[in-house]
Amino acid sequence: MEIKRPSKKRVLRALEKRAPKLVETGRKTLVLQGTKTSEVLNSVLSEIYHLKRDSAVRFSRRNENIRPFESGGETSLEFFSLKTDCSIFVFGSHSKKRPNNLVIGRMYDHHIYDLVEVGVEHFKSLASYKYDKKISPRSGSKPFIVFVGEGFESSEELKHLKEVLLDLLRGEVVENLNLSGIDRAYVCTALSPDRVYLTHCALRLKKSGTIVPRMELVEVGPSMDLVVRRHRLPADSLRKEAMKTALDKPKKKEKNVSQDAVLGKIGKIYIPDQKLGDMNLPNKAKGVKRERREAKMQKEQDRSSSKRHKEDSN
């Protein structure tokens, strides 16, 4: 089969941006809904999109035949992931058996990697909180994520939920942080082996008498209880493939360098021909001074020897 290369550089750059990377910078989130949703669930999806507006895609239309846990029901999700280049999704649906149902899943190579299904209870929206709007977190800022409770270490369901929430909420991966730019925190509290309280807080920096300021948490919403219903872990082979590190990357071939069993690493250095005759020497070179001084001394010795010879002959 013939492989077509893009003729425009803009298209080529877009394809390279979507290409798989060993070290990911950030994950885009796809927010969508099923055929039937409740008012509470619509508010949850809208506010998740509001919190991740800079790195999220929101589908407002209803989508049929999306069942992530069933075979064949994930085809539309994988197509949307490929179309929008999103590696994590939040899918909302509502039914009598599973009211206010939220499915959070991660993708690998635009195929479903793992899934966590939670039920939303005791939801409080952003509008229900009253606080000073001056401390409202800025869009796109890097958040703190705090997990409180032993359940995140002992319960398998909460361990899995913790991994998924970290990928969902952390934003872009950075190496350095400016303390004044951190203005929000997500607090996840394990209330029971299958229930987590999630809330969103703003950070206020106050004077503490030292260099490090004192921090206060102000709850700004949204907040909700997440009850774990079902979860599906990835297969061992898929997990191993997805967790490859940069050490597994083949080394780039070095030019003019070879390996020898005895000498080790051998390199070739190419130096152009040096034309010493055409080089411009300085006017007062030390070598030239020494030659003149030696010639002068030799001339004086010759004069003195010739004078002595004349005196002897007389």
TrEMBL record:
| Superkingdom, taxonomy of origin | Eukaryota
Name it.
Uncharacterized protein
